[in-house]
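> forwarded from #structure-qc
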């Protein structure tokens, strides 16, 4: 596992109570025949499903525990001919099932053991990798299929990021956009080795050749891990490369800095990516950590939104 604690200015640990406004959406773009991207925005919470009881009918809220965190993720399928779509679907489904059935949730800040959290998410990535490889081996038409996967598990005030591929996680803080994750491409490897300057990476013919992904030609996935300490006013963006191939960091910063709800910000990002060419599927997930009641996004179609109270 590649482990790093991302170096950002320290947030105030005793942040006042606030809200998280989350929204996600995906779009086929203007060129591709199908959409091989997937995303998820979800609350993690305990619930009690009562089959029979002598008690009077209870308020459903009584049977549902408080939120234990949020799970945000994007995946960009690789392989074409519907194989990429299948790979990204398998990965997202596998992650969701792992979060519900196998993962230790952080009920309080002091419950979170960083090494345990990352070890569990690494295990989840390995399970996804094994599942995608297994189906690729059993279905010749899907051999070699794979997917990127970038997720953020938010247990306020921390965000645990796990990543494989060239989708990205960004943090906007104080008007400054910082790329949290590293692109797992050969072009980025060449930059790190000093073989090409960083500004040439996006133009390299190796800019989309992945050395690390779920499934695909890699032997086993290597999760890149980061821990962020969040503060009210921060914005997280998870996105596939259909966004970053069309919009530069300056424009992404301008859009994320707006006061609109997360839903409107997502729609602007996707719309401008299409206006700039729409050469690939584009998927975005935005989470705004706000002090007031600014978040009022509406869910529709392939979009999902939720505004929830953060624990004090």
């Amino acid at each position: 596992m590649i482990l790093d604690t991302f170096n950002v200015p320290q947030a105030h640990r005793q942040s006042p109570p606030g809200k998280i406004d989350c929204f996600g959406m995906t779009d086929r773009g203007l060129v591709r025949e199908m959409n091989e991207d997937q995303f998820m925005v979800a609350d993690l919470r305990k619930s009690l499903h009562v089959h029979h009881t002598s008690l009077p009918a209870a308020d459903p809220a009584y049977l549902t525990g408080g939120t234990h965190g949020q799970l945000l993720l994007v995946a960009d399928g690789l392989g074409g001919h519907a194989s990429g779509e299948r790979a990204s679907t398998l990965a997202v489904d596998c992650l969701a099932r792992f979060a519900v059935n196998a993962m230790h949730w952080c009920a309080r800040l002091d419950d979170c053991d960083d090494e345990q959290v990352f070890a569990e998410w690494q295990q989840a990535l390995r399970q996804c990798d094994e599942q995608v490889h297994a189906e690729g081996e059993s279905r010749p038409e899907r051999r070699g299929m794979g997917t990127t996967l970038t997720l953020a598990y938010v247990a306020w005030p921390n965000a645990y990021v796990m990543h494989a591929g060239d989708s990205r996680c960004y943090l906007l803080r104080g008007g400054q956009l910082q790329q949290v994750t590293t692109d797992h491409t050969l072009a980025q490897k060449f930059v790190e080795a000093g073989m090409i300057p960083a500004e040439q990476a996006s133009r390299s013919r190796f800019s989309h050749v992945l050395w690390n992904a779920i499934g695909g030609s890699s032997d086993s996935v290597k999760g890149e891990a980061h821990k962020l300490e969040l503060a009210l006013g921060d914005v997280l963006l998870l996105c596939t490369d259909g966004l970053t191939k069309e919009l530069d960091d300056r424009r992404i910063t301008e859009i994320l800095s707006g006061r609109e709800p997360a839903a409107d910000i997502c729609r602007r990002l996707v719309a401008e990516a299409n206006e700039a060419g729409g050469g690939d599927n584009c998927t975005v997930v935005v989470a705004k950590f706000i002090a007031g009641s600014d978040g009022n996004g509406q869910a529709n179609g392939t979009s999902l939104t939720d505004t929830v109270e953060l624990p004090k």
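QC bot note: Residues 5-16, 294-312 have pLDDT under 50 and may be disordered. The CA atoms of residues 43 and 66 lie 10 Å apart.
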